[in-house]
Amino acid sequence: MVHPEQFAALFNLSHPGHFISWGVLQVSYGNAVVIVLMVAAFVAALLIPFPGHDKEDK
Amino acid sequence: MTDLQIERQWTTRLRKRVEGTFPPEKMLPDTQPSYVASWIYVFGVLTLAALVMVIATGCLLAIMGPTWWHVSGVGHFINSTHLWSVEVFFFAMVIHLWGKYFMAAWRGGRSMTWVTGAVTFLTSIGAAFTGYLSQTNFDGQWIATQAKDGINATGAGSVFNVLNLGQMLMWHIILLPLVALGLTVGHVLLVRKRGVVPPFADVSEKVSA
After folding, report:
1. Which of A3, A38, A46 sits opposite B91 (nearest CB)?
2. Of B23, B115, B116, B138, which is most buried by a Cβ count within 10 Å?
């Protein structure tokens, strides 16, 4: 049994996309959020200590 | 058959070469250097885990056909899992790339490890692109019409027609996955052969020692 709501988006996508423009550079809000999350994950990976690892063991 | 003839067999020579290059303790090591205990090293294996999910869901979609997800809730779930596995794959792979770039991970005879990783990245972009073209919906058609002029401008349009759904589907499910998977296996084998690149400080310590 197929229900139409199974195929519906979680929020309204029926509008033009939102973009950030900076000179010749243009990026959608969605892609900008992903890039920010990747940078945040990268920085967190460098700063957060790895569990179960004692620096004294080095 | 003499011992000399056995030694000259290609099977004997290949086996000895593989045994020498990839001994079991290198393929499945018991321990890793202490500097590997960092979250930045997790993103490589996270990329591999996402790739396994991409291939598994892709195989299910291949069994049921490219339009299955339009008419089945289960198909839609598998199709969405395929998409989100790809999102995780690229997310993790880009952070893996940044980490390796700032480690200069091509040091110590690891240039081919870096090159195979970079080419896998480029191949994956092609695989993702042809995946968007294979959605069998208006989004796929829109992307194809937007891409055709750029592809045609390169001259590749004569052999790579983005408006040809059958051709794009074959690139997506056979050719590009074969290349990406082959490169990934080679990349992991090279990591196992050369080991994980040491931090800069460790290199200077070895030089001064």
Report:
1. A38
2. B116
How far apart are the two ends of chain B, measured CA to CA in Å?
Answer: 51
Q: Which H or E run includes B89?
A: helix B73-103
Rg of chain A's alpha carbons, rounded to an integer? 20
SS3 state of residue B178: helix
**Å between A42 CA and nearest CA of chain B:** 6
Give CA angle at B93 (B105, B64), nearest 5°.
145
Tokens of B187: 């990349």
Are residues B113 and B106 in contact, defined by beta-carbon separation less than 8 angstroms?
yes
C-alpha distance from B106 to closest chain A C-alpha (Å)? 20
Mind spelling out the 3-state secondary structure of B137-166?
CHHHHHHHHHHHHHHHHHCHHHCCCCCCHH
> In what helix (H) or strand (E) does residue A14 lie, and over which residues does it extend?
none
Contacts of B129 by beta carbon, 8 Å cutoff, 6+ apart: B147
- Quote ipTM for the complex: 0.83
* pLDDT tens digit sequence for B157-209: 999 999 999 999 999 999 999 999 999 999 999 999 998 998 887 555 555 55
Binary contact (A46, B38; C-beta < 8 A): yes
Domain residue spans in chain A? Answer: 17-48
pLDDT digits (tens, 9 = 90+) for A13-25: 788 889 999 999 9
| pLDDT of B142 above 80 | yes
Q: Which CATH class is domain B40-196?
A: mainly alpha
In which element (H, E) is residue B109 found?
none
Could you read off the pLDDT of B62-119 as tens digits, one per residue?
999 999 999 999 999 999 999 999 999 999 999 999 999 999 999 999 999 999 999 9
3-state SS, residue A56: helix
